[in-house]
Specification:
six-stranded mixed beta barrel, membrane, binds 2-acetamido-2-deoxy-beta-D-glucopyranose, about 525 residues, five-stranded antiparallel β-sheet, PEPTIDASE_A1, alpha+beta, 10 helices, Cathepsin D, subunit A, domain 1, protease
Length: about 525
Amino acid sequence: MKTLATSLVVYLSLLLDVAVVGVDGIRIHGKRKPWLDDPFSAVAREEGGGLQKRVPLSSDLKNVGDVNYFANVTMGGRVFSALLDTGSSDLTVAGTVPNAKNTGKTATVNYAVGIAEGPIQTVQIQFEGFTIQDQAFISDTSGHHADGEGIIGLGPSSSSVVRDELANSGGNPVLDRIFRSNMSTPNFITILLGRSEDPTDPWPGDVTIGEILNDFENVTSQPKLAVTEVKTGNGQHWQALLDPNGVIGPDGQPIKVSSKVKNSDKTRLNAVFDTGFSLSQVPKTIADAFYARVPGALYQNISGIGEVYTLPCDVELNVTFKFGGVEYPVHPLDTSISTLKKKDALGNTFCIGSFQPIISTAQASTYDMILGMSFLRNAYMLVNFGDFVDGAASKTADPYIQLLPLTNDLAEAHYDFVKIRLDGIDNTANFQLLPATTLPPTESTTPSDEESFSEKIKPYLPYIIAGCATAALILIVAIVFCIRSSRRKRYRRLHDPAPAGIEPPFAQYKPTRRY
Ligand SMILES: *[C@@H]1O[C@H](CO)[C@@H](O)[C@H](O)[C@H]1NC(C)=O
Ligand SMILES: *[C@@H]1O[C@H](CO)[C@@H](O)[C@H](O)[C@H]1NC(C)=O
Ligand SMILES: *[C@@H]1O[C@H](CO)[C@@H](O)[C@H](O)[C@H]1NC(C)=O
Ligand SMILES: *[C@@H]1O[C@H](CO)[C@@H](O)[C@H](O)[C@H]1NC(C)=O
Ligand SMILES: *[C@@H]1O[C@H](CO)[C@@H](O)[C@H](O)[C@H]1NC(C)=O
């Protein structure tokens, strides 16, 4: 608990640092941020050497500096800006929601960093063209979010705190409500995250429900990655297994890794796909292999971010992840993040390695890593909920994830990097990694048998960047409260059948499947 409280305090400073972005309401929309003082404009690459542009017709997301992606949710007639979070399962907003009704219950959602808490209310909402009556949400009074902002959780309903608290299907998250309200709506979502720095493909991002973005139809022909099931607790996330030797480092070699998830194939890491993490959270071995051999890289404890590698912004690193036999190269603009650009004591800027050794509050025994925005900008993701929809008969349809690689054109990615980070002068041929022997020894962690505290909290990083500051003391008090309530929750599992006669043809909800 001490660790958690401490890191929350630490995170507060970053929050102060970058909150400016949100407060000013600067809409990035694929544009460079003005304060980066960069000579390159936001416009798509001009005469372009025949490289194709991918610009979806619509854009439903607002990209704030590649560290937050917001969608609009209209609630009781008022438009709220909600962070898209596949790592949690509740809708929470700060500020008055017109026409909302009280349920008399309250709830607290614990994220890896930060919380949301307050009364559970219901109201009519509109999201992505769907209208839902009496959607349950948390009217967040924690003070962590600006008025008019919140979080929309797109995770499995089994992890919903509101649902748990209301103990009936009226507490279901937005997506379950949508899928159940019209059986013809296919029960999948897709998410495309844009890259604010990208000179060739400027778009903020999109989220769709039950349909696929134009020009990205091929996602359905990608391998179906089985969602690995978490049997105990409410720690189910959208997670799947990497291939053996599924992480290729900047030297082109697979990184030696071993899964710490119990009863699983040690050669395959279990990865959670979480749009709520600005920096992907990876085993230290992977971060070491990505960054430790970069001349000038340092492993530092950065205020507001925690322990992370920093490196010169002009170092191009090519790394790749493999799922289902398909390679997902990571754009070199995503291996280090410049929108969080920092200056050292001498005034030199450095970039943050966007694959961070997993912070303690984000760890759990049920997965090895969390692939957040820095990975997801490189893959169009389809999540098919299968029978993970509340009320579905168990074992009828397994949920799965499909990923369409977006960074296939390595020449274009290289061009982008040279243009953005190297002022257009390609000197990457001179770059060499330090010898492999400089790698620190690989860590070996033994998973604890007990469900750790951290897996009861919902990982959620960008919160720190989006929210507004609050006294650390309040947070610590809140944490204590959260620990209490999550302990309590553990013994209050949900066993409610869906109300009879409503929302056929799904059979009764079968809790054994999820817990
Ligand atoms: C969200 O709604 C606001 C206000 O209605 C609008 O100006 C904005 O363009 C919308 N944003 C997106 C990403 O649709
Ligand atoms: C249900 O969904 C289908 C397919 O998306 C759509 O054609 C139909 O209009 C919807 N029905 C209602 C009542 O919204
Ligand atoms: C879709 O995927 C198939 C198989 O991988 C490939 O042959 C085809 O070229 C792809 N189509 C597009 C438009 O990318
Ligand atoms: C990082 O530094 C902060 C002080 O800025 C300290 O409180 C924290 O414990 C440090 N974290 C680690 C993991 O050393
Ligand atoms: C990264 O990949 C691109 C495209 O394959 C290549 O041109 C570039 O030299 C690579 N950079 C490094 C540092 O390996």
